[in-house]
Every structure is written in structure tokens, then in C-alpha cells.
Here is the input.
Amino acid sequence: MEKGNIYITRDPDQALVYFLPFSVVMMVQYLYVPGALEYHAIIRTIADYIDIIATKHPFWNLSLGSDHFMLSCHDWGPYTTSYVPHLFNNSIRVLCNANTSEGFNPSKDVTLPEINLKTGEITGLLGGLSPLQRSVLAFFAGRLHGDIRRSLLEQWKGKDHDVLVYDSLPAGVSYETMLKQSKFCLCPSGYEVASPRVVEAIYAECIPVLISDGYVPPLSDVLNWKAFSVIVPVKDIPDIKNILVGISQSEYLRMHRRVKQVQRHFVLNWFGIPFFLDRAQWTRRIVDKHGWTTTSTNKMVAR
Ligand SMILES: *[C@@H]1O[C@H](CO)[C@@H](O)[C@H](O)[C@H]1NC(C)=O
Ligand SMILES: *[C@@H]1O[C@H](CO)[C@@H](O)[C@H](O)[C@H]1NC(C)=O
Ligand SMILES: *[C@@H]1O[C@H](CO)[C@@H](O)[C@H](O)[C@H]1NC(C)=O
Here is the structure.
């Protein structure tokens, strides 16, 4: 937002929404004793913060928070906002952990895609085998985090040649390579509803299979997830293979094409890229404009 310049204003009368820049991650780091399961300090800090905003500025009271937004990708984002009723019920909460059972309200809240770039770079993650070359029907690798994973591992780990489910990958097998040669990538919820696997699958052009209850996927106000993902309720985990085998080749090819179409909406860029421009072209332009060089890993550095 700051780089774009067209989105932010310091003139409150120009503003459509007001950002509440508090960080749940920082609060967990400074105000939480690991293992204590005692969130009081965090909750009090957020409540104090909103009190100060409401006392110092007229804007909070004018809308009771409904034109204010906060953002958190932490698992506790939703919970820690729940002690300030107007923040919870009125404000726009931009959350990774978008669990409707924990009060996520798609008519005012926003799902932030959970993105985990292990190297900090996106290079090498985009793309994969062409759809007809993909030899694995379905793939998952991940630890036993929570009940949904338990159910998936119990039903499918080591049980099938088409649905490959691992808690840890065999030596020498690369996670990214598996994503790139699978047709469908299983994205079960872990301890919380969101999973970085959804974006990993889209990057690798593998159809995401969302296995969750109560998860509102990102951008679902504008993207029709049914067109490019398979949505499997937790109770249907035993049926996963039947569900996937039941998708015809032509439907699979259509979904694959659509995954490639929506991919750009999940790609992180150093700069916003105009919709009509190609990523590489635009990067070139920005690099030239600022007199930067690109290293071999495509990371931009000042000359
Ligand atoms: C907003 O409302 C609260 C609670 O009613 C009050 O304490 C506070 O002073 C008000 N803020 C302003 C700027 O008037
Ligand atoms: C917020 O919503 C909850 C649940 O819908 C409700 O119980 C509570 O009274 C609401 N609080 C306010 C201040 O509107
Ligand atoms: C969603 O929230 C409900 C209510 O807190 C909880 O029982 C459930 O486990 C959550 N889902 C996940 C995947 O964590």
C-alpha cells in the first residue's frame, strides 16, 4: 500500500477506511509466556489500543469501528480480537485464520492467503509439468497437526498408489517436485483452517483440494473457487479417491487452465503489477527505471 501511493492518504477526510496497525505476532513475542496458555496481556493491550484510538480520534465512534481494519496472519488473530466487541463484530478483520466457527464473517471480514516462501523467493515455485504429464493423482505431505490431518493420515497414509499421503517424505523426494507432478494437491486444515498448501498448489499448477470445515478461501468474493479447486468436507475424507477419479479428463484440463489463470492473484511481487502486463516485462521496466540489477535468483538489488 505504501509503495503504491495511490492507496494511502494522511487526510482523514479523504480516507475510506482506517488501518489499525497492531501486530498479533509482536504481541505474542513480547507479551506471551510460552506454554502459559494465558492471553490476558495480549487481549488487554488490544482493548487499550482501541480505547486510545476511540478517545483520541473522532472516527472510531462515528462508525463504531466498521470503517477500520486490522490484519493478522497469526492463528490467534481472530481470538485476540474477540474481547473488543466492536472490533470483532464491526471492523474489517483481514485474517489468514478465516474460520467461520470462530466468528469469521465473510460479509465484512477478508481472508488473507497464507503464503510461506521458504527461501523468501518465488523464483522456481511457479509452474510444473503439463497436465497430461502429471503422473500422481493426489499428493500430500505434512505433519499430524490436528484432527483433520489425523483423519487424512489414518485413512490414506501408505494405503494407495494414486493418493500419496505422507507425514514425512521419503529421503531424496522433493516436496516442490511432487507438487509439480501431481494433478491434485491435498490441502487439509492443520491446527487452524488456513494452509499455505493452497497457494503452493496454485503456484505449482496443481488443483488444490480444500479439506476443511468452515474455511472461507481467499478472494472468494471475486473468485469462483469451485471452478479451479475441489472442496471436500472433512467427513468425506474416506471418499477422496472416488471424488477425484470421478472428475473427467476434460473437466480436469479445464480446472488446470483456470488454476493457471488465477495464479497471478496469489503471486507476491515486489511492486504491484498492472493487470494487463506480463510479470517479466513489468519487472524489467521497474528495474530499468530504478537502475537496479537483478541477481541470478531474480532478487533485485540496488546497483
Ligand atoms: C468515544 O466514545 C467513548 C465511549 O463512549 C468515549 O469515552 C470517548 O471519549 C469518545 N471519543 C471521542 C473522541 O469523543
Ligand atoms: C457481537 O456479536 C456477538 C455474537 O453475535 C453478540 O453476542 C454480541 O452482543 C455482539 N456485541 C456487540 C457489542 O454488538
Ligand atoms: C474452527 O473453529 C472451531 C471453533 O473454535 C474449532 O472447533 C475448529 O477446530 C476450528 N477448525 C480448525 C481446522 O482448526
Residues 8 and 294 are 29 Å apart (CA to CA). The longest strand covers residues 182-188.
